[in-house]
Amino acid sequence: MPSTAPLKIGLAGFGNVGAGVYKNLIKNRDLLRERTGREIEVHRIAVRDLSKKREIALPEERVTTDLSELINDNEIELIVELIGGIDRAAEFVKAALEAGKSVVTGNKALLAERGRELFEVAQANGTHIYYEAAVAGGIPIIKTVQESLIGNHIQSVAGIINGTCNYILTRMTDAGLQYPDALEEAQQLGYAEADPTLDVNGWDAAHKAIILASLSYGCWVPCDSIHVEGIERVTKPDIDFADQLGYTIKLLAIIKLHEEDGAIEVRVQPSLVPKDHIISSVRGVFNAILVTGDVVGETLFYGSGAGQDPTSSSVIGDIADAVARAGQESSQGFVTHELYGQPLPVEQSVSKYYLRVQVADQPGTLAQIASILGDHDIGILSMMQPEEEEAGAATVAITLHFAPFGKMQEALAKISALDCVQEEPVLMRVESI
Ligand code: HSE
């Protein structure tokens, strides 16, 4: 008989998302009780700093600063981990699983770095890890891949999974802002953290891509096997050239199965997307993920990829799942198998490219660049050089045919070393997702 007693939760972390979970569990308490058959009660809350000013007041009688109190409290069945970080969170989650408590987490870095080990601990203890909030905030992409698309070989997962970068790139495109101004605006609006490094260097999206790739292909993709570039080097001239060429620049996560050998391609890079592609029209802090399966074909998921309420919606969905699965011994959430191959070395990944080079405005310059590209078997698709430039310098934007990234990098190194090249060239992918 399933339990009808209240489900008592230990909530670790009362930051933006933790407070949102608490607030929304109270707001929709009756609805959740009717739908799950159990009262859901936040029994204990662990915070690091009791004196921190908070928009949502902490219920003082339930608060502790000691994480182990949540583990040692026998009334708590489920832990919700929203403390962030990796090592402390890993020790805490491990201890919870070993104590027989299932865990809901929104911690993408934790799962990308330590997921393999944590799922093994869950398996060994008959407990579960739920992690819908770790990828794309409020978009239910984990359950979609894990459950709804279970009957598919996932051919690709591609899209925008970092709202901060998408906001910055949208403002650079729509309002003509330079990167530092767009970043500052994102910080003022609370879309970017005071330290925005993990967002703008691509690693927030990369951690999410690793989770999606691992889930799609049944193996933990190591962090050092994927290629990651952020948006820090995207400039207004690139946005303008892309626009004139018919593209929008987006930070894309690309996860792709190579059916011939089972290799799995995973990369995160600023990329040129055709303006008429649906992903181009995803603006501001929104996320959008295209999932293609061999049975279902193309599917698209769009919504808020961050924020207190959307992310707490995913956490609460996981809590409800935990109610439904309470007492089931077999661990679920991540099933490993060996049906697919290894991560593809990025040098072997193939795409079209955009290259911007600032050169000395003198005869023979373009010929030298074209010759290097030709020597590396890379064909030119288009070339653009605006007339109005400062004296002695010219900026050339070139789009290139499909080529392996390794070849492209070799050619780029040679182009960079040319005497006529005045600045480090900018290379981006042109994606036909
Ligand atoms: N900072 C992330 C984003 C949300 O901007 O999408 C949390 O991963």
Helices and strands in order, then pairings?
Elements: E1 7-12, H1 16-27, H2 29-36, E2 40-46, E3 63-64, H3 67-72, E4 78-81, H4 87-98, E5 102-105, H5 108-125, E6 129-130, H6 141-148, E7 154-160, H7 163-174, H8 179-188, H9 197-200, H10 203-217, E8 227-228, H11 236-245, E9 247-258, E10 263-274, E11 286-293, E12 297-304, H12 308-325, E13 350-360, H13 365-375, E14 380-384, E15 393-404, H14 405-416, E16 426-430
Parallel strand pairs: 1-2, 1-4, 2-3, 4-5, 5-6, 8-10, 10-16
Antiparallel strand pairs: 7-9, 7-11, 9-10, 11-12, 13-15, 13-16, 14-15
Helix pairs in contact: 1-12, 4-5, 5-10, 7-8, 13-14
Bound molecules: L-homoserine.
Q: Determine the CATH superfamily of the largest domain.
A: Dihydrodipicolinate Reductase, domain 2
The tally of strands reads: 16
Helix tally equals 14
Beta-sheet strand percentage? 15-25%
The name of the CATH architecture of the largest domain is: 2-Layer Sandwich
**Distance from first to last alpha carbon:** 48 Å
Provide tags for this entry.
433 residues; Rossmann fold; Dihydrodipicolinate Reductase, domain 2; 3 domains; ten-stranded mixed β-sheet; six-stranded parallel β-sheet; 14 helices; binds L-homoserine
Walkthrough of the structure:
The protein contains 14 helices and 16 strands. It is α/β, with parallel strands linked by helices. The chain has 3 domains: 7-130 and 309-325, Rossmann fold (3-Layer(aba) Sandwich); 141-305, Dihydrodipicolinate Reductase, domain 2; 347-430, Alpha-Beta Plaits (2-Layer Sandwich), CATH 3.30.70.260. The strands form 2 sheets. Strands 7, 8, 9, 10, 11, 12, 13, 14, 15 and 16 form a 10-stranded mixed sheet that branches. α1 crosses α12 (308-325) and α4 runs parallel beside α5 (108-125). The longest helix has 18 residues, at 108-125. The N and C termini lie far apart (48 Å). The mean pLDDT is 95. The site of L-homoserine has 7 residues, from α7.
